[in-house]
Amino acid sequence: MDTYLNELYGHQEWADAVHWWRLAAHIGALEDNAIRERLMHIHLVQHGFLWITGPPGVEFTFKKLEDFPQMRGLRDYAREYHAEMRERFKTLTVGRLEEEVEVPWFQPVLKISVRQALMQAAMHSHYHRGQNAVRLRELGAVPPGTDYIVWLREGKPAARWQ
Prior knowledge:
Elements: H1 4-25, H2 33-52, H3 71-91, H4 94-98, E1 100-103, E2 110-113, H5 114-138, H6 148-153
Antiparallel strand pairs: 1-2
């Protein structure tokens, strides 16, 4: 299915990869507590939305930062999400986009469409990448340009994780 969500998720993966590259390039950035915790939050929430928009009956594995003693493991967790989401988009239908799912971390449980859940996941990631960009500047580095329009200007490049 080819929708604006495909583009949004292509951008999201590219932006996450660029973000990781720049953080890794600045000595100490990946040891910074605020950045580490925010990266964990970004990728845990991404996996959470992958889970709630996926097939029913699957258990969610709640991860903690301690599960990733090396930041490479957390980066791999991010890559895993993006690989699974690319596969999900191959079979996503218009009908599925409008089906309701439950967001269980709200009380009472929030019911939204799969489309809305996917939009939220992408916007949420963008928001927190921006916070990390501010923190990276505070640490003395130049944050990467990860805006959607930058991705478009560069010809919608695929994410480069390695």
